[in-house]
Amino acid sequence: MRYQHAPSGSRVQRPGSSTPIHLLDDDVLLIIFDIYQEDISTAYNDILLEPNWDSARWWYKLAQVCRRWRYLILSSPVRLGLHLVCTYGTPVAEMLAHSPPLPLILNLLDKVCEPNAEDEQAILLALQHRDRVRRIGLRMSATKAVEAHIGHKRTISCS
């Protein structure tokens, strides 16, 4: 983008050129984030049927763009439908220690991957935050480990 210099030395934007994103106010940025989130809503709603972890974690990279975006995204978790995904290979202990208290989605449903002992331990750790768990998707071997942890207080559905 080219700027014309005003006599005072401040930059003046050329007519007809686009606005740099850092000049957009927070409300406009939230609208943009809403639209982006809506584009991946199918993956979010069907996360237990056909997991698409890149889509489910749509906000992770946006929150790393700059401090302002991170603050804006993390201060609007309900509006943006934010959650943390616990799945194969996720460092759940680190994530829980260093992330805000967002809702959790626990998913070990991938038909290609088989959960190892570390994955099952990570899910058990996440289950210690029951008030934050929004969705659970487990295959049979993981289901047995979780049943042993939480008992028969809740019904666990197997896919």
Automatic annotation (TrEMBL):
The protein's name in its UniProt record: Uncharacterized protein
Species this chain originates from: Russula earlei
